[in-house]
Design brief:
Strand content: under 5%
Shape: flat
Distance between the termini: 32 Å
Order of helices and strands: HHHH
Helix content: 55-70%
Structural class: mainly alpha
CATH topology of one domain: Lyase 2-enoyl-coa Hydratase, Chain  A, domain 2
CATH class of one domain: Mainly Alpha
Largest sheet: none
CATH superfamily of one domain: Lyase 2-enoyl-coa Hydratase, Chain  A, domain 2
CATH architecture of one domain: Orthogonal Bundle
Number of helices: 4
Radius of gyration: 16 Å
Length: about 90
């Protein structure tokens, strides 16, 4: 994906993207990057699908994954979100 912004809009867009990264689970982000590296340039086959499903299950079952689901169900920010970025 490519996006174009004027100089006046650029700082605002960068802040939006950084804000999204700050509120996402840090371990989940690392695992997503690892998954991308693992499947890049590979055909989608049964092995890739099984590996992807196993990775997702591992992340969801991790302490961070459980905290994320609990926070969602309780309608609160997860513990990893910096206090200044939490919505009340």
């Amino acid at each position: 994906m490519h996006e174009l912004y004027s100089l006046e809009e650029l700082d605002g867009r960068i802040n939006e993207l950084l804000g999204a990264l700050l509120v996402a689970g840090p371990c989940a982000q690392a695992e997503a990057k690892a998954l991308l590296r693992a499947v890049a340039h590979r055909s989608i086959d049964d092995d890739v699908i099984a590996d992807t499903a196993a990775r997702i299950a591992r992340v969801r079952g991790s302490p961070e994954g459980r905290e994320g689901v609990a926070a969602f169900l309780e309608k609160r920010a997860p513990a990893w979100v910096p206090a200044g970025l939490r919505k009340s």
